[in-house]
Amino acid sequence: MKTMAKPKSGSARWKEDLAGYLFVGPMLLGTLIFTVLPVVASLLLSFTEWNFLAGFSRDALTFVGWKNYRLLFQDPIFTKSLMNNFLFILQVPIGMAVSLLIALILNKQVYFKDFFKIVYFLPFISSVVAVSVVWMVMFQPSFGPINQFLQSIGISHPPRWLGDTTTALPSIMMIVIWSGIGFNLIIYLAGIKNIPKELYEAASIDGAGAFMQFRKITLPLITPTTFFLLITGLISSFKVFDIINVVTQGGPANSTTVMVYYLYQSAFVNLKMGYASTIAWILFLIIFVITFIQWRLQNKWVHY
Amino acid sequence: MAKKWLVLVVAILVLAAGCGQNSGTDRKQNGSAAGGGEQQQQNNGGGGSAPQKEVTIKFHHWYDTEDERLDKVIEQFERQNPGIKVESVRLDPKGSAESMQALDLLAASGEPLDVIMQPGLNDFVKRVGMGLFEPLNEHLDAMGIDMNEEFIVDTSFDGVYYGFPVHYLPWITILNKELLDKAGLDVPKDWTFDDFTEYARKLTDDTGEGMDKQYGTYFPREHSQLYYMALFNQPNINALVSPDGRTSHVTHPAVRKSLEVLQQVEMIDKSALSFSDRISLNLHYAWPYFNQKAAMNITQGHMISRVGGYSQYPATFVTVFAPYPKINKDDEIYLPASINFVGVAATSQHKEESLKFAYFLATEGVVIQEKYLSNWSKVDLDDLVDKILSNTQSPEFVDGESLKHVLKVSKPTPLSITPFFYSEVVNAYAEQVELFLLGGQDIDTTIENAEKAVQRIIDTNQ
Amino acid sequence: MQTRTRFVKLLMTIVMGLFGIVMVLPFLWMLSTSFKPESEVFTYPIEWIPRTWHAVENYREVLFGKYPFFLYYWNSIQVTVGTTCLSILVSSMAAYGFSKIPFRGNQALFFIVLASVMIPSQATLVPQFLLYRYIGLFDTFIGLILLNSFSVFGTFLLRQFFLGINNEYLESAKIDGAGHFTIFVRIGLPLLVPAIATYGILRFIWTWNDYQNPLIFMRSAHKMTLQVGLAQFSDLMGVHYSLLMAGSVVAILPLLIIFIIGQKQVIEGIQAGGLKG
């Protein structure tokens, strides 16, 4: 950790602490009020059955202990959604790798670099509706362009994409990777920009080729960015909802039901707020553990 | 350095603008929450004893008031009831489902609510169970309203009334007359599911490919009732679970019949676009019909006022109506319907006025709207049909006589109260049906698995 | 050697160009749909060139029709600019604190802050909503701004970049008597401009495109933001796509502008150097 050297003496120490708290203060305060409080509330709610239409009144909340958790672990839909989420995380490293590749290419290897940046960024700012419609048409199993193309090159029974329980989730993953490229791209570009030119120049002089330079200079020096994208990517991956809601609504046959989608159904369709909070907390624990492990491991591979 | 200060200054300015905006508006416009309160204070001297004070009641719904002519309804009501003002609140423009979410949040946070609409029995039952609606029996007696006399459907829960049925949205079959004539078929006046299947086959034109193909019918995913279509209109049992939430009806023979129809039409005859193809098309359920890709649809009552064409889909052919199919030739014709409800919030501060408006909506209001059929017994149904159809874009493209015939020969399916957790049941059932439609399992396995899944949900909700 | 590099560059340009077409498809669909009458929106295969030119009617209805489009636009601008500025301020300060000041509880606090986003918003929506009503922030622009201004994402991103700044540089400033605030403003921030610009762009886009929060946390019709306002182009029979897309095309313009300016002026203009190694 490259914070500055810790001052030794007592009062200087206090001064450092004070400075620290002042800097992070606004953030902490805001997070505390607007996020942490609701989060704690939802933890408490997972131990209740809450008739939330009546607000927080005494008779609306019934304490039920671990009942929700017990029911959750016997719930086949929840189990399915859990598995779906774990499959879904694969899109994070794949998406990052693709974006890094594109970032490197766009950085040095093309003409009209700025134009391309805009082009590759467009999906990120396009309306979710537009993205969904276009991809649903592309993936249409009987007469969409992708399968038409596959059939024309001789594959007689191409996968049915969104219309099949085994390929629906991978199809969504592809859409998510595709629309995330713009986002990963500009973050990687910012990270690459930070690498001093002199390093590359020195390496060239020493005779290192492009790939060598990538391995020894670029890759290590963008590890802070990679770490960031990995953590935030994993967290977002577990929270995926919008694309499922618009494109498949969890189907076909719950093959694309992810935990947050089931949570949403439990809360706002089945009106079971306590149960939904339980799902949220299991999700939280999973994300927390995974992130914590990543955090601990960062010293092994992240170079600041 | 300058950059940083610029950011700071801009931020402060914008925050200040935000603050200013808020307080300015409050002073000028009595934000909705404050407005009700003020009136309330003025009215504190007991219900109706100060007749000159104005009461404002809120009406929460999801409609475009102009499109749905609700503005005319409100106008008429206010004219007949000087002293009551109705404030219309459109919860979420995206639709009724999203609106329900917005409503629930408002209710949870103690927002003053008065008159609330519900998109269907299922939603209504859920919220009655959560105490959102005021029991109306006493108020109804005081106003001299006899629910049995006024409305053709019984909407009581254990003898208690919580709201009025507003729009009557029967499930009927709409058929493309041109395509019917081309196939040499008569307009069905009374038919079975087997007839329906045969019609679907004859109305399918195999000469097209892919999206050029014209199918006999179309089963949209949004209409999950079609997954148990033969059960849906039955007089005694017409939902997947009994009203007390204890018994599953998945093994009822009508459910099997529904699956057989689906199998025959979609998978064997291929007279409807297959589920696997449908799922990847972002099509609204009206699209295939208006674009002549599906010659007929068993569809819900909203289409009645739409088949004459509207902004998104102009009508280009004549539509005729046929009854809901029955299982056996000698069965009676039953007509299932979706009904939306309007009730009075239990927390309302103006229950008398709200009840008046709710009653008005459900009775004269529907007639004024001229958009939907009504549950009111005092309505001349034929007349209403004429009015509704004359309001469509191209009335010449709708055969009103066939609709009147359907309404005459059909008996309304009695409303079946569904338990609180009915949406979970439908989801579990739908999951099995979708696996079936994808060719992954046969009818017996589907019913078996569905029964297990539904029973599990029943057990966890006891 | 030079010809080979130029050839590779040309080849890459073509390849990326081809893939780029796929990238642009949704945007083209948005444009194309906004020019069509509603009944022609869903044709299979997709008709990119509208059969009937309905653009004028569509745009006229969206911009000057039933709903106060420009008022929504202005509302969105206020909320988005406010959120972006405030969150840049808060996040950069916090990022500096978490990365460069060795105060006690540094790591643990950061992890707690990070943990707060591990709960999906759908679960905290109801408690958050109730909280907002209770403290009176409901239906206010301030409330909406505050909702999105304390983003862990920004703090985390900027922290990563701050950590990359070599300490000797800062230590020498300290020896010269500079306090943390001075270091932050005079050294830290200028070095972080590409990262801050990147975050600013992202935060702008997210806030601008946010539908859920303005919908839930705002009530008054005249305070609606663009995304909520556009959703009004739907009725019982579904979304009115041609109008929605016309509105969305106009709505996307500031995002494009911000991105183009941000990328060109700020990120390109900075040559990061002399700090590492």
Structural features, described:
The complex is a heterotrimer of chains A (304), B (462) and C (277). With 304 residues, chain A is mostly helical. Chain A is built from 14 helices and two strands, in the order αββααααααααααααα. Among the domains of chain A are: 1-39, no CATH class; 89-257, Orthogonal Bundle (MetI-like fold), CATH 1.10.3720. In chain A, strands 1-2 form a two-stranded antiparallel ribbon. Chain B contains 18 helices and 14 strands. In chain B, a hairpin with a 2-residue loop joins strand 4 (156-157) and strand 5 (160-161). Chain B starts with a helix and ends with a helix. In chain B, the strands form four sheets. Chain B has a six-stranded mixed sheet. A four-stranded mixed sheet of chain B has the order 8-9-7-10. Chain B is globular, with a radius of gyration of 25 Å. Chain B folds into two domains: 55-170 and 339-379, D-Maltodextrin-Binding Protein, domain 2, CATH 3.40.190.10; 172-335 and 405-460, 3-Layer(aba) Sandwich (D-Maltodextrin-Binding Protein, domain 2), CATH 3.40.190.10. Chain C is mostly helical and 277 residues long. Chain C is 71% helix and 1% strand. A two-stranded antiparallel ribbon of chain C has the order 1-2. Chains in contact: A-B, A-C, B-C.
Entry keywords:
heterotrimer; B: 462 residues; alpha/beta; D-Maltodextrin-Binding Protein, domain 2; six-stranded mixed β-sheet; four-stranded mixed β-sheet; 18 helices; disordered N terminus; C: MetI-like fold; 2 domains; two-stranded antiparallel ribbon; 13 helices; 71% helix; globular; disordered C terminus
Furnish the topology, listing elements before pairings:
The complex is a heterotrimer of chains A (304), B (462) and C (277).
Chain A: H1 10-45, E1 48-50, E2 61-63, H2 67-73, H3 76-88, H4 91-108, H5 113-125, H6 128-138, H7 145-152, H8 168-193, H9 197-205, H10 210-221, H11 223-238, H12 242-247, H13 259-269, H14 273-301
Antiparallel strand pairs in A: 1-2
Chain B: H1 2-29, H2 32-42, E1 55-61, H3 70-80, E2 84-90, H4 96-108, E3 115-118, H5 121-129, H6 137-143, H7 147-150, E4 156-157, E5 160-161, E6 163-170, E7 172-176, H8 177-183, H9 193-202, E8 215-217, H10 229-232, H11 253-268, H12 275-278, H13 287-290, E9 294-299, E10 319-322, E11 334-335, E12 337-344, H14 351-369, E13 373-374, H15 381-390, H16 400-409, E14 411-412, H17 422-437, H18 443-460
Helix pairs in contact in B: 3-14, 15-16, 17-18
Chain C: H1 2-34, H2 55-64, H3 69-100, H4 106-115, H5 121-135, H6 141-149, H7 152-163, H8 167-175, H9 180-191, H10 193-209, H11 212-217, H12 226-230, E1 234-235, E2 238-239, H13 241-268
Antiparallel strand pairs in C: 1-2
